[in-house]
Amino acid sequence: MNLTNALFVLFASILVFSMTPGLAFFYGGLVSAKNVVNTMISIFSICGIGILLFIGCGYGLCFSGNHLGIIGNFHHFFLAGVNLMKPFGVTHIPLGVYLIFQLMFALVTPALFVGATVGRMKFNYFITFVCVWTLVVYYPLVHIVWSPAGLLAQHGLLDFAGGTVVHINAGITALVLSILLGKRSRPSKNDDHYNLPWILLGTTFLWIGWYGFNAGSALGINHVALQAFMTTTIATASAMVSWMIFETLHGNHPDMVGICTGALCGLVGITPAAGYVTDIGATWIGILCTFVSFTYITFIKPHLKYDDPLDAFGCHGVSGIIGSILVGIFATQKVNPSIHENGLLYGGGWHLLGIQFGGTLFTIIFVAIMTWGCAKLIALIIPMRVSKQAEDMGLDQSEHGESVDYTVQNIRDLELYRNEFKGQLSHLYHDRK
Predict the structure, then answer these.
(1) Which DSSP letter does residue 182 get?
(2) What pLDDT, in 10s, does the model give residues 356-385?
(3) Which residues make beta-bridge pairs with 88?
(4) Do 123 and 399 contact (CB within 8 A), yes or no?
(5) pTM (2 decimals)?
(6) Which of 74, 82, 114, 123 has the smallest set of CB atoms within 10 Å of its CB?
(7) Closest Cα partner for 120 from 386, 375, 396?
(8) DSSP secondary structure string, 50-69?
């Protein structure tokens, strides 16, 4: 048993957990004032739901047994029969520590697609959907990719920390839900962001938590963990600077939302590759993922007939897809000798790139079909979308009966009332004349 590695992974687990409340601040700052509570509650409530589900049956479905390389079994209901102190993996950490680490991934993944549903989805539908989706989409995909007996794992797919399992998964789910929900009745404008400092605070929490996400996936203090830490830092920096450059070339001012979005694209893109690529590879991954996501969000999305308010697909889905494929180009055994072959740029030929492309495509199709089926079946029992009146009122009041401090919104309302009052005074003055 290696206690040093165990403490490292436990600390990484805490960092990963901080990503979920960090995401709540990030999304909460982006939405309009009338939907802040609903957005943040939707994200934070997943902590309770996700923990119970994973401890109850998630661990067994992900990592115990094997059925067709797709799913595990229910043999360890509420961890019955699991020896938490059993040494696990080549880093010899306790099995319980690995279980806790994986638990944190199960919390943050469904929270990512909340950005596509804000202001429109009924809360009871959302809770039900998260439960069903976790069971039939997330747990099977974890088994397929990360269980040694999993279908894609057997075919050699490389996903260091969750490019397919987390980001493509959440991004495609966000796309499907945004299509099924339809457009908002009154889409928000850029000046409707509730709190810009919250956006920066949330991004900071996410960036810090991502070090646990990526470096922690080495499951010990070793050269792979150190390299994952470095590549995470470099890819995020290159993505952030790239977004500012693209924004400027497009004729816009670099703004808070754009800079933070660029940083997230880098974090997403490097996730599947963090422990496999060099610093140069990380730089290019950050640039390429940001370029594709920026192009999609700026030029392609406006012409498509769906409404993803916070660009959950444009950021997590698109950058996750590009990052996963780029593993087949930039991965090298110089960084991680445990991988079976090098990427295209390091003499490995086209084989690994083909595996990465095929695994990415499988993930997209699997998640899209399963998510669509889950959403449609639940909608037969629980209405998916709130009424127009509830949407106009805001989900904070209509779904939860409470609201945040409306100071910013009140200032805007006072400005409107003042202008309206000045107009009425002007009319009275002219009438009297």
Answers:
(1) -
(2) 999 999 999 999 999 999 999 999 999 999
(3) 93
(4) yes
(5) 0.92
(6) 74
(7) 386
(8) HHHHIIIIIHHHHHSS-BTT
